[in-house]
Here is the input.
Amino acid sequence: MSGPAMKFAVEKINNAGNNQVLLTERGNSFGYTDMVVDYRNIPWMRAHGVPVVMDCTHSLQQPNQSSGVTGGNPQLIGTIAKAAIASGADGIFIETHPNPAVAKSDGANMLPLDQLETLLEQLVKIRQALL
Here is the structure.
């Protein structure tokens, strides 16, 4: 669902009495084996008056691989996260693990834990530059 269409989802949740809504950008299917992020969705979603979070790892999934296991591009997590913050995302979601190769789920999409602190420091600097 695109950013503009999320208006109706936000309205339904608010009308049910819940005003604690946030929207998550997770990428869109492109063909059968790739996800693509449309960064226009971030300001469009924010226009609905709710926080927007970028799911950096899901947006890099490569589903339907011939191995039967979802692949990914974890080397691009930093790029996706930086672009999301620069586009106005209020937060990020990143799956991380000390050793992604042995993670029980989604290891192909995870950021190694030892890279997380540096990335978070960079993201804070980007966010501060925008304020």
Q: What stands out?
A: The chain has a mean pLDDT of 89.
